[in-house]
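re: ur msg from earlier - yeah i can do the glutamic acid complex, just paste it... oh wait u already did. ok heres what im feeding in:
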Amino acid sequence: MTFTTRFAPSPTGPLHLGHAYSALLAYDMAQAEQGRFLLRIEDSDTARSRAAFEAQIYTDLSWLGLTWEDPVLRQSENAAAYDRALAHLGARGLLFPCACSRGDIRNAASAPQEGAPMHGPDGLVYPGTCRHRDWKDRTATDAIRVNMSKALDHVPNLPRYTETGIHPALRLTRAEMIEQVGDVVLARRDTGQAAYHLSVVIDDAAQSITHVIRGADLASATPIHVLLQILLDLPTPIYHHHRLIRDDTGKRLAKRDDARAIALYRAQGATPQDLRQMVGV
Ligand code: GLU
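and the outut:
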């Protein structure tokens, strides 16, 4: 199978040095394998995505010297595929609607009988308030969550995958998946749009991705993605989680670290080679 990887930025802010590293690394790895490098615009969060940031992504990546295949997959154009996947999981009884706000979850998770609140890949592990609800009773403002315990009942072998980067593959037990990951969101509240964990697995399969190359900050989400791939009968790619680019104080660059935006370095006269040197790729 041809080595196929992707860079999947969200157009919610300018690309910064951390993105430059991730994109260049994926591109170089694909080149070294005579493979394919694809681009995906993760714009399913329409409230925060901006056309201007998407345009800037193309400009920044071209300036860095990257080329990618057409067509670019834009998540906002792939909603039907996410809805089909939700309907499939819902029909198997693995989903439930959830009306809880962040505040509701915080309050329920910190109730004395719950013990110390547990943090998972998406923040506080969901305390289960709406788990009794039927998926068919979803209202327009509900989120959709996967019932992790029921989902695992359908998976005879726990998620396993190959990891080639800096982060060891996470081999979570069933109990750990339930306690430390929990009932993650697959469709957002209010907008009903597919949430990251769902769209990323559908899109990686749609783009025939063989190697997912992304930051170590996403390593804890990978067992969720592998589980969803099993439930949806999708192939599991090889995962490569790379080191994160940090600022001078050692802090990981945030999504909105505009001070380190690629466009700003370019405006100040830096060359693509300078950026490669700065991030060490
Ligand atoms: N869209 C995600 C981000 O910008 C990347 C998702 C992924 O590579 O799986 O952080």
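cool cool. Residues 8-10, 42, 200, 214, 218 surround glutamic acid (CB under 6 Å). ping me if u need the other ligands too
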